[in-house]
């Protein structure tokens, strides 16, 4: 992720950094309500990340759950 690709919600941004540290790919595409994706390259599954989630805490937990499920795919 580049400097301008940071998520505006700090809990979600922290979860995205944890996902990257676990080896997952984080892409920013800013398409309407979608901020981007967290992608597991070995199994080709992805988790959508929203720009303005209803609950930033729940969005961060979803990203963390996806990260835990996919951090050992490689």
Describe the structure.
This protein is of the alpha+beta class and 74 residues long. Helix 1 runs parallel beside helix 2. Strand 2 and strand 3 form a beta hairpin. The protein has a three-stranded antiparallel β-sheet. The longest helix has 15 residues. Helices cover 36% and strands 27% of the residues. The protein has one domain: 2-Layer Sandwich (TATA-Binding Protein), CATH 3.30.310. The mean pLDDT is 90.
Name the strands of the widest sheet in spatial order: 1-2-3
Tally of strands: 3
What fold name stands as the CATH topology?
TATA-Binding Protein
What is the CATH top level name?
Answer: Alpha Beta
Helix residue percentage? 25-40%
Instruction: Tell me the series of helices and strands, N- to C-terminal.
Output: HEEEH
Shape: globular
- Compute the number of structural domains: 1
Structural class: alpha+beta
Termini gap: 20 Å
Uncertain spans, ≥5 residues at pLDDT below 50? none
| Mean of residue pLDDT values | 90
The proportion of residues in beta strands is 25-35%
Oligomeric state of this protein: single chain
Query: What is the architecture at the second tier of CATH?
Result: 2-Layer Sandwich
Per DSSP, the total helix count is 2
Main β-sheet description: 3 strands, antiparallel
**Backbone CA Rg:** 11 Å
